[in-house]
Write a structure and sequence with these properties.
The chain has seven helices and two strands, in the order H-H-H-E-E-H-H-H-H. It has 145 residues and is mainly alpha-helical. The protein has a two-stranded antiparallel ribbon.
Amino acid sequence: MAAGPTVIDVIANTAFAIGLTLHLAKQDGREERLPFELARRNFYACAKRGLGASIVWLDGDVRDAQELIRNQLAEAAELALIEAGVSALDASHYIGIIRARARNGQTGAAWQRAHANYHGNDHQTLVQAYLDRQDDGQPVHRWTH
C-alpha cells in the first residue's frame, strides 16, 4: 500500500519534493558538501527509519530527519515553491501537511505499523481501514488507529 495514502498526501509529498529540489538546486557546493555516497546512506536510513532516521546534512552534522523537516526543510520548500510561482496559499497548505506530519510523526508507513501493532497482523482489517480513511479524504497525519 502506498505510504502517501490519499490524494492530498500525494500532492503534499510532491510539493515538498519539488520545493526542496528547487531549494537545493540553488545551494552552492552541494555536491561537495553531500557526496553521492553520503546521500545514498541518508536515503536508505530514511527508507528504513522514516522520520526517525538520523542523517548527515549539508553542514556535516548528523540530524534527526523529523527535526530537520520541522525546523528547516519545510520552510525552505515552501519559499522555493512560492518563488517558482506557486501561490502562497497553495504552498502553505500542502507544505503545512508536511509540517503536521513532522510534528506528530505520523506518515502513511507509521500509521500502518501502528495499526498492525494495535490490531495485529489482520491484513484484511488493515486494508479496509486504509480504504475507509482514504474515502474520508483527510491527510494521513490526522488518521486514528
